[in-house]
Amino acid sequence: MSTDPLSDERAGGIVGARLGRPPQDLLEAAVVLEAWGGVRSQDALALEAALLPARVEPDAMPARWDVEEEEEGRESIVAEGIGLLVAIVAVATWAGPLSRQLGATTLEQALRVALPLTLGLQWTIRSRYLGRPSGLRCLAEERGRVLLVLCMLLLALALAPHVGVLAAVLVLIWVGGTLLARRGWGLVYAALVAGEAVALAHHVPAARSLVGLATLVFWACVAAVATAPGPAPTQAPGRLRRALAAGAIGTLLGFLLIGDHSLGWGVHGAFPGLALAPSVLGSLWGGYYLWQFHAAVPRGLRGVPLAQANAQIPGGPAMRILLGALARLVGVTTALSLLVLAAAPWTEGTDRPSLFIAFGAVALMCLFVSLHESLGFTRWALTVAAVSLAVELAIDRLVHVSTPGVALAGAGTIGALLALTPLIGQLRSPGRMLATALWIK
Amino acid sequence: MTPPTILLTTEATYPYAVGGVSSWCHLVVGGLPEFAWRVLPIHAGGRRPRPLFALPSHASLAGRIEVWSEQLPRRRWIRDRLHGGRPSLPAELARALIGWHADHEALVDALVWCRRHPGELRATFRSLRAWDAFVEGLRDALHADAPEAGPAPPLDAVDAATLYQRLYWVARVAAVATPRVDLLHVTAAGWAAIPALVHQRLHGTPLLLTEHGVYVREAYLAAARGRAPAADRFLASRLARGLSLATYAAADVISPVTAANAQWERKLGVAPERIRVIHNGIEPSEACSAPPGDRKVVSIGRIDPLKDVQTMLHVAAEVTRQVPDARFEYWGPPTNGQEAYARACEELRRRLALGERFRFMGSTPEPLEVMRGADVVLMTSISEGLPMAILEAMAQGRPVVATGVGGVPDVLRGCGVVVPSGDIARLATGVAMLLRNPSFAERLGRRAHERVRERYTQRHCIDGYRELLHELAGGAVAAA
User: Fold this and answer.
1) What is the C-alpha to C-alpha distance for residues B91 and B93, in angstroms, rounded to an integer?
2) Mean pLDDT lowest for which of A229-233, B27-31, B255-259?
């Protein structure tokens, strides 16, 4: 061991050579000298402050607001989108044969039960598992509990009189679709529901074929979860309470979709199922863009000096991502709506622009509400969903117009405005939002 | 009569991880059944950890603290809504933990508030007023002038938000309720100390700190050897320093496992009369067996940059040039999170063409058996407290060549070869010399064995803690 007295100059040389930079303080210098310089701790700890660099001017870094788009997983969104499109079209084509075989009223009632429950379950599962990087693996770890809850729920639903079994089967098929899409098996799911459409078109008994499809989807889900790739999750699943709140939001949004009686779910052939496709695909792309929010906001804030950490900067990264998502949602929904309208002569009854506007407004509201939920503003998200539903029910019962979807459009617009206003307040100060909302769960 | 109760707080070690600190905890807890032990482990959130040590019947878990998880503390629905939180809390924590001249009293006051208002923490940290005050507080803390502190690196908004989140977790850890006990025994002057600091302030319970490594030193070392940006390094090491200094200020007694740690503790402001060194202990074999004479050099330790395995590989290359039939065995798994380092070591082994002359053997449940199979034991660490691996080698009468870090020079005084860390040539010379002179190596091993029997037995260790714990807990019980 070296016992020579150590000059500050020599010590500075050793530390600088090891670190490739000046030490941050005398403690760091002492640690480096002891660990890598072979200097005894008492000598290392006796250093003088002359070793340290002069004070530099802080806040010298340039501000930077670049939002680099996340390229990772870009291929999967295309596959997911195609899968979803095929699935929606296929499910829409079920409406005619199902109402003929089971009766329009039965189908309509089953849809009214199944839609809210499906959305509620989808939001719950997404909040607790699928919205996380290793979500499927987290789900795999709790598969027994999840399966038990799901089975009990579906069993209870199936026991409901008249439409219970049909609603339970539809819920299973649709919730399963979410899982399969997250696993990257969206095309497999699309193939399954398209097969069902072909079977129904060829007069295969609806009850038997739907149960068969539900069984296939169920086992596909089991396989998807069991074979989920990636390392063992280091993150625990999301909070149960928050997942339940998310489920409540999803359920309210589901009620919103069925609250407008002018839509006539299942009664008029592919209408309005097909009209839903543009906004769903728009939401998918917008939501996918928004997915990078958690990573892109901190990336965009890198280099912004501490002095501006709580400044209001409307053109900041959070706002840019929201606007990007908004542009994608509106653009895709509008373009596809026009396309479906153009194809109206060949589809059954999808020729009412008001319907596309209504679904577009709801998609917009859902985007904002889901952002509120992911930022931890669950109560506000719930409030917005509840107020929108109240508005829809009020319009539906009090205002009598012949145009379909007016109540839904009104509710969606009110909801979107209610959700957007506080969001703007939050997002225009990205540093605050990152620290207080995004990173304090 | 009810035995005095001790709360043992651990950080990422006992009973969920294997290693020197966990072994020590198990030894002390198991060896002192006259106390009732409550163990409060702090661990990273995620999957529920599985205990790797079975607690003896006089010990039980007092819960566990999960850091970085999303689970929230219990909330009192009415009371927590009536209060408006404490928007100044993050700023107070930043000033007290990041500032060079920290106010420990103010820090403990803030932590006590967290314990009394667990349900308000989330709302407090989500408040915009708290963030604005925090930014101001952090800027104050950074601009405080101290000649030995050096200039703070420029921080950006993300650095500030990262620290804000860490302080939220400091507050969350402080908020966790602790059971009524007669004595607090903290095993690291960092996160494990937080619940104890609050408990001590609330109940006046004596606090004993045992430092295996020096917490702040290890945090600085981790920052220095990592490739993190300057701001990350700065904040991580300052936070560790803040927690350590607050623990030092509060501890009634600090019991480092080696006198080398005591030098750091004194430099960091601990009065010498509050320091009582109690060495780690091991059960030595009755008589030491003769080395096998296979020219085998053994090392036991995790594959971790702190062990400087790459220097060991270079030493092996040099030794095998001088003693061609020398063989090296490295026993131990990579540390969690250091898999890349382990791969780099393997790559270096290939590049140095060491082949079968240096083998990574993986974990061993029988370290003493491994040590008995060695002719020389080698340790190249850049940081240590009082390493169990060296005690294990000495307990089997094996000669040791080691870097002179932490308590190593003390423990190997007169019975081992100690060279400066990173000095490949001298390490290689030491190993080669012992391999070529088996009779000298054997003599050195015998001296090591005698030294362990004299100073580093488990009985010495347990007796030291028994005396100290009775002294502290007895005082507390009498005062109560």
Assistant:
1) 5
2) A229-233
Q: Do B130 and A436 touch (CB under 8 A)?
A: yes
Task: Tell me, rounded to whole angstroms, the distance of Cα B278 from its chain centroid.
Answer: 15
CA atoms of B29 and B62, how far apart (whole Å): 14
Which of B381, B384, B386 is closest to B401 using CA atoms?
A: B381
Homologous superfamily assigned to B1-73+176-281+457-480: Glycogen Phosphorylase B; (3.40.50.2000)
Question: At what angle are helices B193-203 and B230-250 packed, to 10 degrees?
Answer: 30
**One-letter amino acid of A243:** A
pTM higher than 0.90: no
Q: How far apart are CA B212 and CA A185, in angstroms?
A: 51
What stretches in chain A show pLDDT beneath 70? 1-6, 48-84, 86-87, 233-234, 264-273, 347-351
pLDDT per residue as tens digits for the range B359-408: 999 988 888 899 999 999 999 998 888 888 999 999 999 999 999 888 89
A430 → chain B, closest CA residue: B157
| Nearest CA-CA partner of B371 in B452, B304, B316, B258 | B452
Domain map (residue ranges) of chain A:
8-51, 75-238, 239-441
Architecture of domain B296-455: 3-Layer(aba) Sandwich (3.40)
- Could you state, in order of their start, the residue ranges of all structural domains in chain B? 1-73+176-281+457-480, 75-172, 296-455
- C-alpha torsion angle, residues A339, A345, A349, A352 (rounded to 10): 50
Cβ-nearest to B148 among A25, A60, A434:
A25
Q: What is the pLDDT of residue B383?
A: 85
- pLDDT for the residue A70: 47
Among A3, A6, A31, the strongest candidate for a mutation testing the B interface, having the largest count of B CBs within 10 A, is A31
A23 contacts in B (CB within 8 Å)? 150
**Rounded distance, CA A172 to CA A176, Å?**
6
Cβ pair B157:A301 closer than 8 A: yes
The shortest CB-CB distance from A49 to any of B148, B152, B156 is to B148
Give DSSP secondary structure letters for B453-466: HHH-BHHHHHHHHH
